[in-house]
Amino acid sequence: MLAAIVSVQFGAAFAATLIHEIGPIGTVTMRLVIASLILIPFSRPSLRNPRTGRRHTRGDWARVAWLAAALAAMNTSYYISLSYLPLGVATTIEFIGPMAMAALGSRTRRDWLAVLLAAAGVVGVTGALNSDWSRVSLPGVCFALIAGAMWALYAKSSQAVGARWETLHGLTWAMILSSAVMLPFGIATAGGELLRPHHLMVAAAVALMSSALPYGLEMYALRKLSTKVYGILAGGDPVVAALAGLLVLGQRLSPIQILGIACVITGSILVLGHDRTPHEKAPSPQPSPS
Questions:
Q1: Inside any domain, residue 290
Q2: What is the DSSP letter of 191?
Q3: In the beta sheet, which residues pair with residue 55?
Q4: With 108 labelled, which of 10, 133, 156, 251 sits at a CA distance of 20 to 30 A?
């Protein structure tokens, strides 16, 4: 699980270097296309259900379409936010999405207090407390929040697809569909830059580190870990993102921003990492996809 978190966040750091050269749309396009090409030989997706031998229904494909839309929107908005915000800040704000989704499934005062703590953390991490509001990147914050909302949609869509599709078949089809949708936009914005050897090598590393490798690692880990342990470990995403931003991109955060990250992490552990009563619905663990 920790290996998956490190892989995702350092993959995002390498993606940030690519964003400055071919833009966020081009970066998303290359990541999705290459990740699809990596997944296809491993999952060998079929049009039929291996258990029944029958073709998948329209409802099954509708679930895949929703997952594809979530993947495209989530990654696009997240990468756009990285063009405005440091990696650790963007990831911290994005993390509000799945945490709020988990809190909405609970009526406990503890969870809602955790959400308020995380909200205070976001205010701190954006730099709004120690800088002029004119210098706060509102577009970056907005796109990071959209990415968080799409992460929550991804989690729900992933559950729906997993209930009707075998192994990684549904995910692979969703990746193929999202790649087909993004490809024209990537070509329109980046053109021939997509085919430069350097860009292809970096994009391949991003696709492997942010999609193919962590998904496999987390799917294995989720068979072994409880929801409580997953929630505690997942809270480390913003910390690893801040570390990756420092080591790969040279991005330094202020003490108030670091305090804000700590508030979000604490809130996530309170929401995702505590034991639920039998009457409470525990949030289902989902891989961190960005």
A1: no
A2: G
A3: 48
A4: 156
From 126, 143, 100, 144, select the one nearest 259 (Cα to Cα).
126
Tokens of 54: 């029958």
Assess if residue 122 is contained within a domain.
yes
HSE (CB half, 13 Å, CA atoms) of 43? 24
282 part of a folded domain: no
Can you read off the two tokens belonging to residue 170?
């549904």
* C-beta separation of 45 from 173 below 8 A: yes
Asked if residue 146 has pLDDT above 90, the reply is yes
Q: Which of 180, 136, 198, 194 is nearest to 32 (CA)?
A: 180
Tens-digit pLDDT profile for residues 26-76: 999 999 999 999 989 988 888 777 677 778 888 889 999 999 999 999 999
Answer yes or no: is 127 within a domain: yes
Which pLDDT score, from 0 to 100, does residue 1 have?
62
Q: Is the pTM of this model over 0.85?
A: no
Within 8 A by CB and 6+ apart from 16, the residues are 82, 87, 245, 248, 249
Tell me which residue range forms the domain holding 177. 2-272
Which residue's structure tokens are 């379409």? 65
Nearest-angstrom CA–CA distance, 112 and 104:
8
Number of independent structural domains in the chain: 1
Paired strand residues for 48: 55
CB-based burial of residue 128 (10 Å sphere; 0-12 exposed, 13-18 middle, 19+ buried)?
middle
C-alpha closest to that of 265 among 142, 122, 149:
122
